[in-house]
Design goal:
- The protein is α/β, with parallel strands linked by helices and 290 residues long.
- It folds into two domains: 95 residues, 3-Layer(aba) Sandwich (Rossmann fold), CATH 3.40.50.10860; 126 residues, Rossmann fold, CATH 3.40.50.
- The chain has ten helices and twelve strands.
- Strands 1-2-12-9-8-6-7 form a seven-stranded mixed β-sheet, with helices on both faces. Strands 4-3-5 form a three-stranded parallel β-sheet, with helices on both faces.
- Helix 1 packs parallel to helix 10, helix 6 packs across helix 7 and helix 6 crosses helix 10.
- It is globular.
- The model has no long low-confidence stretch (mean pLDDT 97).
- Bound molecules: nicotinamide-adenine-dinucleotide.
- Nicotinamide-adenine-dinucleotide (NAD) binds next to helix 10.
Length: 290
């Protein structure tokens, strides 16, 4: 399994930063072994949302570390729908671009779905377009959304058994929860998955039966020790900005006492999202070449 750290309570710490660095270093070696072809990830940022700027900045930096090229397109907060669509269409038509990432959310008034759906499945390295989602549902080759894919990579890296395991995914968005359910339940992973959401009655008893919990609700410290079966793996995707700083969906201090494995927040699923974006961009290059 390689290096494994434990929390004070004895749970395996699923260290997303470390695994991200491992995956990015592996990718850099692979790209070099193929003669360092120019594989380019284009990032599109619209407006001046501060967290979005930070996310895009780290994606560009990690692309370079992975041996990829980065191209960045930035538009002002007052950009029109036509301007944003025009910028994306240019990248779609540029054969030097292999992956396109439009940083969400777009400023109010812009139709993000219309923008995303311009991206063909091969270049859709975020896996968020209708066609990519359709491919995921139908089990066809395509890009899978990076955050739920990152969760899968952590489960693999820490050898958390999934076949026949009971998994609960909290949250049903197309960005995280829904694709997560599909990935955990699909052939090869073979978990039995329950989807919990804001209308789920008695979340505690739903979760208490689970071997794996993926929390993606965006509700600070929603999951506490009472939700967790002893020995379960708990992966925290949620990000809430509170006065006390960034807080996940999982109450780390209490849960690490009972869980068998847990992600830190920050430093868990977030870095994995970026690693998977780089892997998807590399895969995009080969899909486009084929
Ligand atoms: P979203 O708001 O679209 O969806 C939240 C989901 O949580 C909804 O389906 C809702 O039904 C469910 N929910 C809300 N309150 C609940 C409750 N009390 N009990 C059970 N379910 C509840 O959000 P999203 O885009 O799916 O993102 C979820 C969280 O993950 C956010 O905090 C977001 O910032 C974070 N996020 C993290 C990463 C990462 O890389 N770690 C990436 C994307 C999103």
């Amino acid at each position: 399994m390689g290096t494994v750290e434990h929390t004070a309570g004895g749970a395996i710490l699923m260290d997303g930063k470390m695994v991200r660095d491992e995956l990015i270093a592996q990718l850099a070696v692979t790209v070099e072994s193929e003669g360092s072809p120019e594989i380019t990830l284009a990032t599109v940022l619209v407006g001046d949302d501060k967290p979005s700027k930070v996310y895009v900045g780290s994606k560009r930096k990690k692309a370079v570390e992975a041996g990829l090229q980065s191209r960045h397109v930035e538009l002002g907060a007052d950009a029109t729908q036509a301007e944003v669509e025009g910028a994306v269409a240019e990248l779609v038509n540029d054969p030097a671009i292999h992956g396109i990432l439009v940083q969400l959310p777009l400023p109010d008034g812009l139709d993000a779905e219309a923008v995303l759906n311009l991206i063909p499945p091969e270049k859709d390295v975020d896996g968020l377009t209708e066609r990519s989602m359709g491919r995921l549902v139908r089990g066809k080759a395509g890009h899978v959304p990076c955050t739920p894919l990152g969760v899968m990579r952590l489960l693999e890296r820490y050898e958390i058994p999934t076949s026949g395991a009971k998994a609960v995914v909290i949250g049903r968005s197309t960005l995280v929860g829904l694709p997560q359910v599909l990935l955990l339940g699909r052939k090869g992973c073979d978990a039995t998955v329950t989807l919990a959401h804001s209308r789920t009655a008695d979340l505690v008893s739903v979760c208490r039966d689970a071997d794996i919990i993926v929390a993606a609700a965006g509700m600070a410290r929603l999951v506490t020790a009472e939700h967790v079966k002893p020995g379960a793996a708990v992966l925290d995707v949620g990000i809430s900005r509170t006065e006390a700083g960034i807080v996940g969906d999982v109450d780390f201090d209490s849960v690490q006492e009972v869980a068998g494995a847990i992600t830190p927040m920050p430093g868990g699923t977030g870095p994995m999202t970026i690693a998977c974006l780089m892997q998807n961009t590399y895969a995009a290059y080969h899909m486009l070449k084929a």
